[in-house]
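User:
Can I borrow your eye for a moment on a structure tokenisation matter? Would you put together a sequence-and-structure record for a protein of your own picking? Please set it down just below, with no commentary around it:
AI:
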Amino acid sequence: MDRHIVCLQISAFRIVLARAADSALRDRPVAVAPTHTPRALIREISTEAFREGLQPGMPIALGRLICPGLRVIPPDSSQTHVAHHELQQHISSVAPVWESIRPGSLFLDLTGTTRLFGPPIDTATRISRELACRQGWPSTIGLAGNKLVSQLAATTLAKPPQILSIHPGSEQPFLAPLSTLLLPGLHRANTSQVWQRLEDLNLLTLGAIAAVSLAHLQAILGAPADLLHDWAQGIDCSPVHPPIAQPVIERSIRLDPDEVDDYLVLGRLYRLLEQLCTTLR
């Protein structure tokens, strides 16, 4: 049986939630960053802010210099958690199994649901329409035979709401022109050496990697070669992992904006640890 995996992404989820509650934030540059410290870094940006030259990780002071009209909103983890749970509840009626990627993004396994809900592309379209109309959450959706291709399909879509379906057998033509930087995790620090080696050899697209034999890739990259070779061919057998409920205890404290005393910060962390241990007892 062919697999039907959907990757649903709501880009800049925290900003989407803020705009749904405050229409004044729409169609203007918005960034998410702590507002109680001048040295805060930008965590998330809107499309308008990206066009102005802002990037996540940029100091908020520099962002204001580049874009004087920038609106900064503080992160709200509780609101994000509630909204992500609402998103999961919404898709649970049509997806037997789903997996969280991050707040606002999910993998859905629609394999075997055609007789119940119709073709997977119709189900994905219905989910996208309902999220946009009921919650005001525009999404991008990729549909393919595995998690990797569906995630890359959703990532390549520029402006929501859009849906891209990659039919079985057409994975390689779709993947060939894509940059290797789009591969999940390849931009992280622990794989920077692999990326540097690929750049040195001018293997900058998935098509370029697919054209190299596995034996040559193994000689060049070592252990990561097998996985990269499969990914470049559009092969990904990883399952959609259902959510596992685990008990969580949280304690938090807000530090002063310019607090740099290591002993003071460490003391407050120990205090939080004591509170957690007391709760566990």
The chain has four domains: 5-13+77-168, 15-73, 175-232, 247-281. DSSP finds 13 helices and eight strands in the chain. Residues 272 and 278 are 10 Å apart (CA to CA).
